[in-house]
Amino acid sequence: MNPAPESTFHMPAEWEKHEATWIGWPHNITDWPGKFAPIPWVYAEVARKILPGETLRILVNDARHERKARQTLKAAGADLSPIEFFHVPTHRGWTRDFGPIFVRRISPETGQCGLAIARFRFNAWAKYPDWQLDDAVPERIAEKLGYPLVAVRAGEQDFVLEGGSIDVNGQGDLLTTEECLLDNSVQPRNPRLGKTEIEAALRQFLGAEQIIWLGRGIAGDDTHGHVDDLCRFVNPHTVVLCQEDDPQDENYRPLQENRERLEGARLADGSKLQVVALPMPSPLSFKGQRLPASYANFYIANAAVLVPTFNDPRDRIALGILSEMFQDRPVTGIHAVDLVWGLGTLHCLTQQQPHAG
Predict the structure, then answer these.
(1) Pick the CATH number of 8-349 from 3.75.10.10, 3.40.50.720, 3.30.10.10, 3.40.630.30
(2) Residues with Cβ < 8 Å from 174, sequence gap 6 or more?
C-alpha cells in the first residue's frame, strides 16, 4: 500500500461535488427478515434521484446479481446509462460502513492533489461473523480504479472504522461519538486503542484538526452509536442535531446531553458551532424491536438531498428544516419504513466519491 505516510490527507464534505455515488445492491435477506421484497425497489428509487447529478457505481456479487439489479432499475424508470456495475462480492449492502472512504492526497514532493482511498478495516460492527468480503471492498475498488490505497494505522495496529461513525465539514472538523469509537466492551472496534491514538489517526488520515466528541447515539441503533443517525454537518459552521421532545422517551436525555456538548463546542477556525434542532419521528418498532428511525440519516447527492421519511407527521417538518439548510439543491423524501427494518436507511447505504479536482 502507498503513498508515503508524509503525504497530507483531507476528507471533503459530503456536499462538495461528487464524481460518483457508490451503493451495494441488496441481496442478504437476513438483513430484512420477512421484509426483503420491497428493498430493491427502495434502492431503485434512491438511484433514480441520484442519477441526474452524477454517476452511480453499484457493487454486485456476479453477473446474475447485476441482471436482477438492471431489471429492477429499468422497471423503476431509472436511466441506466450513467450506471457502472462492479463485480465485487459483499456480505451486506451497507456501503457507507465498509465501502471506500475517499480522501484527497496532497503530495509533499509536487504539491499536486489527487484522490486516494483510506484503508480502514471493517469487522461488521463487532457484531456479525461474516465480514471478510465487506472488509476487502476498499482494496478491490482501489485496484479497479487505479487509486492509491492508504493503510490507516492507529498506534501499532490497523484501525477499524465505519463511515457512518464519522461526519466531516471539509474544513478540518469531524463529528463522532464516544459510544462507538471509545467502546471497549459492547461492540469494540479497537479495544487496545485509547482516545489519544484514535484522534491522532483521524487527524493524520482524514485531516481532522478538531474532533467533536458526542456521547451516545439513538435507541435502536445496532451500530452502538453511529453519528449519522444523530448529528450531521449541513455547512462548514452548522450541524443539525436530533431532538426528542418527549421526556419519557429513551432518546430524550442522551440527545439533551449531546446538545449541551455542542453548545460549548468550537470549530477548528475558532468559531462557535451553530446547532439546528431536527425532530425525531415517533418511535418506530417492528416485531417488538425499536428501530433507528432518524431524519439525520439523509444523503447529500449532487442533484438532491435524500431524506428518509416514516409516514409520520414530523416528516414534513424535517423536510422543511433541511430545505432551509440546503437551498442549492432540492430536498426529497424517500419512504424508509421498510428500509429501516434492516437497521439503517439512506446514508447507511450510500458512499460518496468526491470529484478528483
Answers:
(1) 3.75.10.10
(2) 166, 167, 168, 202, 206, 208, 210, 211, 212
Instruction: Write out the chain's pLDDT in tens, 357 residues.
Output: 544 456 799 999 999 999 999 999 999 999 999 999 999 999 999 999 999 999 999 999 999 999 999 999 999 999 999 999 999 999 999 999 999 999 999 877 666 789 999 999 999 999 999 999 999 999 999 999 999 999 999 988 999 999 999 999 999 999 999 999 999 889 999 999 999 999 999 999 999 999 999 999 999 999 999 999 999 999 999 999 999 999 999 999 999 999 999 999 999 999 999 999 999 999 999 989 999 999 999 999 999 999 999 999 999 999 999 999 999 999 999 999 999 999 999 999 999 999 987
Q: Give the catalytic positions in this structure.
A: 348
Helix (H) or strand (E) holding 323: helix 314-325
Element (H, E) at 40: helix 39-50
For the chain, give every domain's residue range. Answer: 8-349
C-alpha angle 62-161-269 in degrees, rounded to nearest 5: 125
